[in-house]
UniProtKB/TrEMBL annotation:
Keywords: mRNA processing, mRNA splicing, Repeat, Ribonucleoprotein, RNA-binding, Transit peptide. Residues 1-17, 496-513 have a biased composition (Low complexity). This is CRM domain-containing protein. One of its GO terms (cellular component) is ribonucleoprotein complex. Residues 1-69, 149-178, 496-551 are annotated as: Disordered. GO terms for molecular function: RNA binding. Residues 192-288, 310-406 form the CRM domain. Residues 31-46 have a biased composition (Pro residues). Residues 525-538 have a biased composition (Acidic residues). Signal peptide: none annotated. It comes from the Eukaryota. It comes from Gossypium gossypioides.
Length: 563
């Protein structure tokens, strides 16, 4: 450091030059290349390409259900594919295939009666093409198995103790000495009608059985037909549980189930149906239907709510809708409930009020609109509004009461009927005076009175003005007559070989009855001990009020079981 300080012209504390010298580019060496080259990636693809790739199958390019696709259609064939075609008719959109026993539909029980006016998608058949041997799953087909698996035959089921085989019920039930036989028609497959003890034997194990077919808002769909036959493969009875919209008209659901499957409904409780396959059913010879690959879009139907419904002007309809807002609903429908008594409830409500409202909060709009369409046909009635998730209905101008004449029946009743015999003549003379009281009876009450009079459980007094003694005499006479009619039975005439006939009947003598059971019941009505169970008498109703014979109930029950 001392040596450096002694050098002339050297200042150790001087600053760096303000303008550094420029680098000579000609003499500078190039920078070395990186050891790993930088990869060159292709430009990123756009998520929404402008060009759509064409698809080979037109069914895969069906417009979205929420699109505005509307194509007006008329009754007849709207699309064909060789022997297969799409038809529009009274049952909506149906599909006709060669060799099919009937025209296929997505839903057989929930199709409106009105003809569709437009479709929401192009008319394609929702079935696999006939040239495809199996549905395409994206994988190559498996190799043919070397094992020769026999077809399932209900007439020759596997033994019960076979390993790896589930329980399979045999055909039947059959009486002693009879065996299953091949049948082609529905009557031949069902066989003889089931007896009551056979129905009880078939239904009782399924009451707490959870293996069932669930029938929802779409009703009896096409793919359910094959599902029911799958249940019939191992059991004689298929349990079907119905909930939601179809339960409004259970008779319609049961009719379509029997028509399309060929079975017989042997028991029905609420929305649960027990479907019997038949005594001679064979799974091997069952009808096989193609599977529907997707749910077709629902067609466009005419509007249910009109501004001026039939029989009303627009002003009258608006007035009814205004009154309906303050009207209390007769019931509240629960989601996925059973509405079997809804039609009867609406009819009973129309007896008291011309407007009826049903609360449908929590239900989907399509559900309560379908319920309104069913009530319009079954009640019948006029739909006014679906506002606020409520169905508002009017009974219409052509409405008729269920109990006959709706005009009020006037019955004249005297105020003082407890007067003596001496006053009876005076009261009869005053019966035509305007002072007599009048009682108005409803149509329902008159219907009940008429039914009681026809069954001899009530007596119509032609003489309105009766004294106490005359009235008591009438009551005693009617009481004896009603008891005689209640315990009398029809006479059975038996013809002998020589032409003579003997008759037996129950005679009423002084309040006692003399009957001969051997004469009343024929040999056909008497049942052997083998035909009924030991608990038959356990089901007899408890003794009814004084004056009845329990033997009458027992004989009637045995006669019903023998049929």
């Amino acid at each position: 450091m001392p040596i450096l300080a002694s050098l002339p012209g050297l200042n150790l504390l001087s600053s760096l030059p303000s303008n550094p010298p420029q680098n000579d580019t000609t003499s500078a060496t190039p920078s070395p290349s990186p050891p790993i080259p930088i990869p060159k990636y292709p430009p990123p693809r756009s998520r929404n390409p402008k060009t759509n790739v064409p698809r080979s199958n037109p069914a895969l390019s069906i417009p979205h259900r929420r699109s505005n696709y509307r194509k007006p259609v008329q009754k007849g064939v709207i699309s064909t594919d060789g022997d297969r075609c799409v038809i529009v008719g009274e049952n909506g959109v149906s599909y006709k295939l060669p060799g099919a026993p009937f025209e296929f539909q997505y839903s057989y029980s929930e199709t409106p009666n009105a003809e569709p006016i437009a479709i929401r998608e192009p008319a394609y058949l929702p079935f696999a093409p006939p040239t495809m041997p199996r549905p395409w799953t994206g994988k190559a087909p498996l190799k043919k198995s070397k094992k020769n698996i026999p077809l399932f035959d209900s007439f020759n089921p596997p033994p019960p103790g076979k390993k790896g085989v589930k329980h399979v019920e045999k055909p039947g039930p059959f009486p002693f000495g009879k065996y299953p036989k091949e049948g082609k028609t529905r009557e031949e497959i069902l066989g003889e009608p089931l007896k009551k003890w056979e129905i009880k034997m078939l239904v009782k194990p399924l009451l707490s059985y959870n293996r069932q077919v669930n029938l929802g808002r779409d009703g009896l769909t096409h793919n359910m037909l094959d599902l029911i036959h799958t249940h019939w493969k191992r059991r004689r009875v298929c349990k079907i549980k119905c909930k939601g919209v179809p339960t409004v008209d259970m008779d319609n659901v049961c009719r379509h189930i029997e028509e399309k499957t060929g079975g017989k409904i042997i028991h029905r409780v609420g929305g649960v149906v027990y479907l019997f396959r038949g005594r001679n059913y064979n799974y091997r010879t069952r009808p096989q239907y193609p599977v529907m690959l997707w749910k077709p879009a629902t067609p466009v139907y005419p509007k249910l709510i009109q501004e001026a419904p039939e029989g009303l002007t627009k002003a009258e309809a608006d007035e009814f809708r205004k009154k309906g807002k303050s009207l209390l609903p007769i019931c509240t429908l629960a989601k996925n409930g059973v509405y079997a008594s809804l039609v009867k409830d609406v009819r009973d409500a129309f007896e008291e009020c011309p407007l009826v409202k049903i609360d449908c909060k929590g239900l989907q709009p399509s559900d309560y609109k379908k319920i309104g369409a069913k009530l319009k046909e079954l009640v019948p009635c006029v739909l006014l509004s679906f506002d606020d998730e409520q169905i508002l209905m009017w009974r219409g101008r052509d409405w008729k009461s269920m109990y006959g004449d709706t005009s009020s029946t006037l019955v004249r009743v005297k105020a003082d009927i407890s007067s003596g015999i001496d006053n009876s003549a005076k009261s009869s003379d005053d019966s035509g005076t305007p002072d007599a009281q009048r009682v108005v009876s409803s149509p329902k009450m008159m219907s009940l009175w008429r039914r009681a009079i026809e069954s001899n459980k009530a007596l119509l007094l032609e003489e309105l003005a009766l004294g106490p003694d005359s009235l008591l005499e009438k009551v005693e006479e009617f009481e004896g007559m009603s008891l005689a009619i209640e315990h009398s039975c029809e006479a059975l005439v038996l013809s002998s070989e020589d032409g003579s006939s003997s008759s037996s009947s129950a005679e009423f003598k002084g309040g006692s009855y003399s009957e001969d059971e051997n004469d009343i019941y024929s040999s056909d009505d008497i049942i052997d001990d083998e035909d009924y169970d030991d608990d038959s008498f356990a089901e007899v109703d408890p003794p009814i009020p004084l004056g009845s014979l329990p033997v009458d109930k027992i004989a009637e029950r045995l006669r019903r079981e023998s049929k």
